[in-house]
Design brief:
Elements lengths: L1 H17 L2 H4 L16 H16 L7 H8 L4 E3 L6 H8 L7 H23 L8 H26 L21 H14 L18 H14 L3 H14 L22 E5 L26 H5 L7 E3 L1 H6 L12 H6 E2 L4 E2 L2 E2 L10 E3 L2 E3 L2 E2 L19 E5 H14 L3 H12 L19 H16 L5 H10 L23 H6 L13
Antiparallel strand pairs: 1-3, 2-10, 4-9, 5-6, 7-8
Helix pairs in contact: 3-6, 3-7, 4-5, 4-6, 6-7, 7-8, 7-9, 8-9, 9-10, 10-14, 14-15, 14-16, 15-16
Length: 512
């Protein structure tokens, strides 16, 4: 048998050697390109659904995405020795091009880009499809591609810009500049607004809406210090009357209250299946990847890898000087000893890890926001906790910042108080003793505070710091390890340097 295999292999080698290079350089007649797959409406819908699945994946929203943003901000601290080394490196400023957390997010977003380009390019081949449906699907794909690039831009600066499917190992693009990526985002998010609906029926909740494209475009403008155009986009959302603040602040962070009136762009999860080892759409044991790891990673009864920073805890207000924190958002966001859980009250003697310095004492404080401790105290829990990527409260706070930057501080204060006065929060209106409003600078200080206590742990603080730093608005840098010309951006991963022939070490971000 071995001799027979050897003879067959030798004959094959001889035949291959006799073939000319032109004969080998052929397209497989039985195969096809990614774009040629999309022949029907059903196939095109499955294609765009696969882009959402990539955003939902373990490399992105289900796990590494929230780690990367939180650990790059000053909202987070280490929960203890259980925080893995590659995550601790992001938190402590020791990140390098080999880091698996930032590498996973980079790769995850370029998977999103690749799938989006495939759908956009393949839509031209689709037959017997309602043109309005096709137009909407392409707009969804373009939004998801833009969403990926907006985050890549915030985290890495200029990145390779792909608008078509790569078909060759040599097809890697060089880095585009920050301005080029920024202009691409503005052009894309402006162009697709007319093609996206204001809302969807319940069967399609989670698909991209017109409001999502406007909110993301406003973020892009604000990052580019263009507050006038950001204000235009934000006012479109307000005037659409599609969104409102929910009365119960906690409803933004529970499994049962997803896609509420405050949700503008949300990534949904369905069950508890999580593929911890990769991002395949179907795990090796079967089932569907529809679980989120946030509770397991952050909660007091889970691994508690990440806890709130002392600085974040201290930023919440008391209504009277010296009192315990009375901003109701504190109790929604964090859990302490004796606080209610699904099975009674929390005993922090059973909680692992580090303590926080809070109100003069050392105590174990953990994240409650986006955890399921209100319904389960199981020590292992992954489940269908949706992640709200953009919600209406952020839109109002963004609009407040725009108004203040454009000289309308009174309008900014009104918007801040709109967020602050929801029924379940009901904090005293600005101006307050701690946050007066006698100047643009004082109102900006109130905006910074309100964004932090309203949006803490929602993967926004990191991006706020990055843009305020770039715009020279920080009197002191909140990131203790930050150095000029280093740590502003993440390092380009080694995998990209090794596989993309058009990006070399000379293209690496400063300091790495």
């Amino acid at each position: 048998m071995k001799n027979k295999i050897f003879k067959i292999g030798l004959l094959a080698s001889m035949l291959l050697g006799a073939c000319s290079e032109s004969l080998l350089d052929k397209v497989n007649p039985n195969g096809g390109t990614p774009e040629s797959y999309y022949g029907t409406e059903d196939e095109l819908i499955k294609g765009v659904n696969a882009i959402y699945a990539a955003v939902q994946s373990n490399s992105l929203v289900a796990r590494e995405w929230f780690f990367l943003h939180d650990l790059r901000s000053d909202d987070a601290a280490s929960g203890g020795g259980q925080l893995e080394g590659q995550r601790a490196a992001v938190l402590n400023g020791a990140n390098d091009p080999a880091n698996s957390v930032s590498g996973a997010v980079w790769q995850g977003y370029f998977i999103v880009v690749h799938r989006a380009n495939s759908v956009i390019g393949g839509s031209a081949n689709t037959l017997n499809i309602d043109e309005a449906v096709k137009t909407r699907i392409v707009a969804e794909a373009r939004f998801l591609r833009a969403y990926a690039y907006a985050d890549l831009l915030a985290l890495w600066g200029g990145v390779p810009l792909y608008t078509e499917t790569v078909t060759s190992p040599l097809g890697g693009k060089p880095r585009s500049t920050v301005d080029e990526v920024n202009q691409f985002l503005i052009d894309e998010l402006t162009a697709i607004q007319a093609d996206l609906p204001l809302s969807y029926p319940s069967s399609d909740l989670g698909r991209v809406t017109k409001g999502a494209s406007q909110a993301l475009l406003a973020r892009v403008y604000m990052s580019a210090n263009d507050y006038a155009n950001a204000k235009i986009e934000l006012n479109k959302i307000v005037s659409s009357a599609q969104y409102s603040l929910v009365n119960a602040y906690v409803d933004n962070f529970k499994e049962e209250t997803g896609f509420n009136t405050e949700s503008i762009f949300e990534i949904g999860f369905f069950n508890s299946d999580v593929n911890w080892t990769g991002d395949g759409d179907i795990p090796s044991w079967g089932g569907v990847l529809e679980g989120n790891t946030r509770t397991q990673e952050y909660s007091s009864v889970g691994w508690r890898n990440v806890i709130p920073s002392d600085a974040l805890l201290a930023d919440y207000e008391s209504t009277f000087k010296g009192d315990a924190k009375t901003d109701p958002r504190f109790a929604v966001s964090f859990i302490r000893h004796g606080d209610p859980t699904a099975s009674g009250t929390l005993d922090t003697a059973t909680v692992q890890g580090n303590k926080s310095n809070f109100e003069g004492t050392k105590q174990k404080i953990s994240w409650r926001k986006y955890t399921s401790i209100y319904k389960s105290t199981a020590t292992y829990y992954t489940g269908p906790m949706d992640m709200r990527i953009i919600r209406y409260a952020e839109v109002l706070l963004n609009l407040a910042e725009c108004e203040n930057e454009l000289g309308n501080s009174a309008a900014a204060i009104t918007l801040l108080n709109q967020v602050r006065s929801r029924a379940s929060v009901a904090m005293p209106a600005y101006p307050t003793a701690a946050y007066p409003a006698n100047s643009k600078a004082e109102v900006f200080k109130a905006i910074v505070h309100e964004r932090r206590v309203e949006l803490g742990g929602e993967q926004i603080r990191n991006k706020d710091i990055l843009r305020w730093r770039k715009q020279g608005k920080l009197t002191t840098d909140p990131i203790s390890y930050f150095q000029a010309n280093k740590f502003e951006f993440l390092p380009i991963p080694n995998t990209e340097l090794a596989t993309n022939p058009n990006i070399t070490q000379a293209d690496q971000n400063p300091g790495y």
